[in-house]
Write a structure and sequence with these properties.
The complex is a heterodimer of chains A (252) and B (119).
Chain A: H1 6-16, H2 22-43, H3 47-62, H4 64-80, E1 83-84, H5 89-117, H6 122-137, H7 144-151, H8 159-178, H9 182-202, H10 210-243
Chain B: H1 3-9, H2 13-16, H3 18-29, E1 32-34, H4 35-42, H5 46-58, E2 62-69, E3 72-79, H6 81-100
Antiparallel strand pairs in B: 1-3, 2-3
Classes of the chains: A mainly alpha (252), B alpha+beta (119).
């Protein structure tokens, strides 16, 4: 064994989780699903779109993490083995809450805004509040009064920029903590993309409803971020598969 | 042998063996790992790894779970609380030994470069 420190050993084990690119692919699917759902909602705020959104949320949010695990079981584990990263329960909870916030806030904001601005849309809006919670991260109920009072001062304008900066900061942190340089590039892209989306939002409004404007900008951010994340994940996966062919003999 | 020097020989022999130290250090950094991961990370042979895992299991430092994922058998290895504590104690002990080890930098070893300048 060389003179690898415990810290380096820990980093190596945690980095292993990202070696195959499947986490990026899975996260990208969730982002693209939500992004397209928001874009569709902003373009066609009608009932069939709500049904499509329901399918997208349940499929990507609820089933997504399980899909990543199953992909890892069939692709990664037979090639290089399985190692569970040492996430502490607290950090896992914080991570889950962060992801929930990034994904669910625009949904909730759109729903709350649509209820206020157009009463005929209120049923679908209320449905989205529940879907944003149940579909994505297992939150059974998000109190309407809390979301209303919390989101009101934030406003729709700054949310895409704040999301892009938060995602960028998270990627920089992960890249630094696990020594993964590609995360730095993704972080830069996230900040640039959210700045561009923010600039677009400052232009004359395309929609009369502020909530639908947010659905459009956040949908654009999620979709474009998801596509690049998907590309990064697939390239990483291709390199991983080339470097690690399936062993002829089962080592277990 | 003085009391201080005697502590040098009191290190945990189960962990002190290089291959087992490597296994425990890897398991310390993860929640759990399977046999294939350990095989790749340590570079040991299957037989060697199995023998060392058995020794660590006997000492109560690791727990081994054999299970199936679909049709594929998987041997999952996890460091126990005892193993984690033993590794931390070993790490501390080794650190103290190294810190108190007398090293004279001025002594020149034959065949090596000149000793570092003093003063």
């Amino acid at each position: 064994m060389n003179t690898m420190s415990m810290d380096q050993l820990g980093r190596r084990a945690r980095r292993y989780w990202y070696n195959d690119g499947l986490v990026e692919v899975g996260t990208a699917i969730i982002l693209i699903g939500n992004g397209l759902g928001l874009l569709l909602l902003s373009l066609l705020p009608i009932f069939p779109i709500i049904v499509l959104v329901l399918v997208a949320l349940v499929a990507t949010g609820w089933r997504g993490p399980g899909l990543i695990r199953r992909l890892k079981e069939s692709i990664t584990d037979p090639r290089t083995g399985y190692a569970a990263p040492p996430f502490r329960p607290v950090s896992r909870r914080v991570l889950k809450m962060g992801l929930f916030a990034v994904i669910a806030i625009p949904w909730i904001y759109t729903a709350v805004g649509s209820i206020r601005e157009n009463t005929s849309f209120s049923y679908s809006g209320m449905g989205l509040i529940l879907l944003g919670g149940v579909g994505n991260w297992g939150f059974a109920w998000t109190p309407y009064s809390m979301t209303g009072s919390l989101l009101e001062p934030i406003g729709a304008t700054l949310l895409p920029l704040m999301t892009g900066l938060a995602v960028g900061a998270f990627l920089v942190h992960q890249g630094h903590a696990h020594t993964i340089p590609r995360f730095y590039y993704l972080a830069i892209y996230s900040v640039l993309l959210s700045s561009w989306v923010f600039a677009l939002e400052l232009a004359p409004r395309q929609y009369s409803w502020e909530a639908l404007t947010l659905a459009h900008t956040m949908g654009s951010y999620f979709t474009l971020m998801g596509l690049v994340l998907l590309g990064s994940g697939l390239l990483t996966l291709r390199r991983y598969l080339r470097q690690h062919p399936v062993p002829m003999e089962e080592a277990r | 042998m003085t009391g201080e020097f005697r502590t040098w020989t009191n290190v945990d022999r189960v962990i002190h063996e290089p291959a087992r130290l490597m296994i425990v250090a890897i398991l310390y950094a993860v929640d759990s790992a399977d046999f294939l991961y350990l095989l790749r990370e340590t570079g040991l042979t299957k037989g060697n790894l199995s023998a060392h895992l058995s020794r660590l299991e006997e000492a109560g430092y690791i727990e081994i779970e054999k299970r199936f994922r679909g049709k594929i058998p998987q041997t999952l290895v996890r460091l126990t609380g005892t193993g984690r504590a033993a590794f931390q104690a070993y790490h501390e002990q080794l650190k103290q030994i190294v810190e108190h080890m007398p090293v004279d930098d001025t002594i020149r070893v034959p065949g090596t470069a000149s000793a570092p300048a003093t003063g």
